[in-house]
Amino acid sequence: MTLYPALPQILIAAGLILLAVAAYLAHLVRLHRCLLGTLLAQINLDPLQLPRSAWPALASGGLARLEYSGNWFGQPVQDSLGIAHNDSLPFTFQVLANNDVQLAFRLYAKTEHGELRLFAENLAGVFRLLMETAVHRKMEALSVALTEQARLTLYLQHDLRNLAQWVEWLATDFATASDDTQLLGIARRLKKSAPHASLRAQHILEATCKNRSDAEAATYSLASIIQSAADHAGISIHIKHNAQVFVRRDLLNRTLDNLFANVAPLLRLHPGVSIQVLITQVAGKVTACINLPRLAEIAQLTPENLFEPFSSGRPGGLGLGLYQAHKSLLEAGGDLSAELHEHDICFLLTLPTGEV
């Protein structure tokens, strides 16, 4: 006689429950593996495209909401995906790269307990690695570009040395000439080589600083500097008001040259279009709002991509002009931001006045 008549049924029920749990966990593992593969397949995406592209996989893996905010190459960025989060403790992390990128992420799981939260936490960790990898890849590409720029600088130094040697030889020949016949021969050689030397000198002047005295901050008329930069770029400009700014002129010139160089080729295709500039001064700061027409050729640029390196709105552009403009103005003690409207782009330059 059996002491527990229902024991076989209990064991069968327990076995079925264990089998169901094992099948459920196996299903979760397979799903999790599939979602990981989906996330890893997006490793080559641009960092700011990655959150929205990865969100379907993250949502399927147990995450209810993704939020991020921060600074992307001088522009504030933020986005949120999913439903409003509950009171669950979020998974948080930051992605930092020098002073160019500061992004803070918050991911909320659908549940606080059990294997679903464990799987969601694992997916959040993989997403974090993908974001860090994408940002570091972007910064490495920038580093390579700057290294290439340094390599080109070495070539310019070589050209400068050659030009200096040419001038030295010419001066020596003139100084040691003993009669008019020798002077005439030197003059003929000079006439023959002068065009090449002039071209080399012009190339060096365009690629190096215009004036060493500009390295010190001083007080300048902002309207005058903006007008000169516009004239140099060959574009029409209308400036309203004026103010004095205390700044390194070479850095401000570099900012404006890069700013106008991005639109000058396009403006030449649209005769009659001019740039509007409004200068104001408030509380020791001078602001210049430069309104550029949002032409069809650059309409595809989004606000967060304006100062991002290698994001160009011009066909054949390198995408470094606005990045260098932003960095130059920061170095000068100012700031550069932008707002995209339906028909124009407002670049806002903020500069110190030097007033105490």
Q: How much strand?
A: 15-25%
Rg of Cα set: 31 Å
Task: Give the topology string: H per helix, E per strand.
Answer: HHEEEEHHEHEEHHEEHEE
By oligomeric state, this entry counts as single chain
Distance between the termini: 102 Å
Tell how many strands the DSSP assignment holds.
11
What topology, given as strand order, has the largest sheet?
6-8-9-11-10
Shape: elongated
- The total tally of domains equals 2
Helix content: 40-55%
Class per helix and strand makeup: alpha+beta
Overall mean confidence score, pLDDT: 80
By DSSP (H or I, 4+ residues per run), the number of helices equals: 8
Residue ranges: pLDDT <50 for 5 or more in a row? 210-214
Write out key terms for the chains shown:
356 residues, alpha+beta, Heat Shock Protein 90, 2 domains, five-stranded mixed sheet, four-stranded antiparallel sheet, 8 helices, elongated
